[in-house]
Amino acid sequence: MSAQTAPGTSATPVSWSVARSLVHAAGRVAAPEPVDVPLAGADGLTLAEPLTTLTDLPAFPTSSVDGWAVRGDGPWRIVGRVLAGSIPPPLTEVGTTVEIATGAMVPASADALLRVEESTRDADGRVTGTPRRQPEWRLPGEEAAAGEELLPAGIPVTPGVVGLAASCGHDTLRVRPAPRAALLVFGDELLTAGPPGAGRVRDALGPSVPAWLRRYGCAVDPARVVAPVADTLPAHVAAIRQALADVDLVCTTGGTMHGPVDHLHPALAELGAEYVVNTVAVRPGFPMLVARVTGPDGRSRFVAGLPGNPQSAVVALVSLVAPLLAGLTGRPEPEPPMITLGDEVPGRGDFTHLALVRLDPRLGTAHPVRHVGSAMLRGLARADGFAVIEPGTRGRPGDRVPFVPLPLPAGEEP
Questions:
Q1: Please, are residues 353 and 283 in contact by the beta-carbon 8 Å criterion?
Q2: Nearest to 289 by CA among 319, 330, 331, 247
Q3: Are 29 and 128 in contact (CB under 8 A)?
Q4: Which end of the chain is more exposed for a tag (fewer CB within 10 A), N or C?
Q5: Domain CATH for 113
């Protein structure tokens, strides 16, 4: 077992940045084979190969305006009309014109296009006016030449990418399929309905973690969310084994420490798992892990152990699950952008501190939120993401620090 340490012993925490690189690399190696999907089903997936155009863009000279395609000097005699979708005959005579619509193919031998709003008709019905010096049509290949690479592999497919692919002749895209995920919620003390009380707490992760995973591009079938799993080793082993048979990633919540009912590490040992990362030097949420299990088909599946405290679980999601999924989908390792702190943020000694912050778009600054205990969700519900305070430092107003955004709903701009 190529783990950092054997299950049941204390592990030396890996630095936050190194942990992210390790899980991304593991995901990249285990990425499933690309598939071809129709354009209508590609949104949100990842390009598995560069997008190239099958033709010049545009493929033929295209009018940019409604007006007149003219040959020679005016006034011009009208000899026809050209609409989009048709192939016009050439203008064979000097002094002639055809009415032309935006997007229509420009006739051969046309010298210029005259905008309709800048034209007039004389008493004989001829068209008069002065064409602009700048050509009013798009030339073949103006946007791209046939075979040109438009977008690299590894970028998310957006509606804009779908539209571009369609415009240059594609009916399908070669993409990485969405990873399939399951969630196992550990803890006999959890309630799945109603208010907490009598020593039992309401499970907040069973309803929320699948939503986070979907925002990271996972496919999560509600039938693959099991809550709660009984606090016994056989129940843990059986639940993980069953989930691994159908998915690429199993997320678990709770049980990542070594207490009397923390069965995750022994369960991973029984399943023959190897750790990719076992504990991370980050606060909150350091007892997080990612382990790899080789399936009967020889392909790797992953178990992500999230702490049981809700905010710590989300820290584990943004710290380890996000880069793991980026690797599984062939995307680059997420590179946190930089933000400017508007207030002081304490450090956490030798650990990286992920501090919940809210962005002020007016001032361009980030400000810590309240109610940020590991078991609290009130601050998280109002936050935009985490400011990254490096080990051995503290954040001061005006400091530029990395920022890990919380994933947004599909189509929403940051």
A1: yes
A2: 319
A3: no
A4: C
A5: 2.170.190.11
Please give the average per-residue pLDDT across 361-367, as a whole number: 93
Q: Which residues of 162-183 are buried (b: 16+ CB within 10 A; e: fewer)?
A: bebbebbebeebbbbbbbbbbb
Per-residue pLDDT tens over the stretch 63-106: 999 999 999 999 999 999 999 999 999 999 999 999 999 999 99
Q: Is position 229 within any domain?
A: yes
357: nearest Cα among 412, 406, 310, 393: 406
Q: Which domain holds residue 275?
A: 14-32+178-328
Closest CA to 403 of 363, 321, 345, 349: 345
Q: Are residues 344 and 320 in the same domain?
A: no
* CATH label of the domain that carries residue 303: 3.40.980.10
**Which of 328, 346, 375 is where one domain is finished?**
328
Q: What is the pLDDT of residue 377?
A: 79
pLDDT band with cut points at 50, 70 and 90 for residue 290: very high
User: Closest Cα partner for 53 from 189, 212, 167, 219?
Assistant: 167
Query: What tokens appear for 225 in the block?
Result: 């969310």
Count of CB atoms within 10 A of residue 141's CB? Answer: 15
pLDDT tens digits for 122-163? 989 999 999 999 989 999 999 999 999 999 999 999 999 999
Same domain, 74 and 116: yes
Residue 145 resides in a domain: no
Decide if 391 contacts 347 (C-beta within 8 A): yes
Of 328, 354, 372, the residue that ends a domain is 328
Structure tokens at 115: 């905008």
Domains: count for the chain: 4
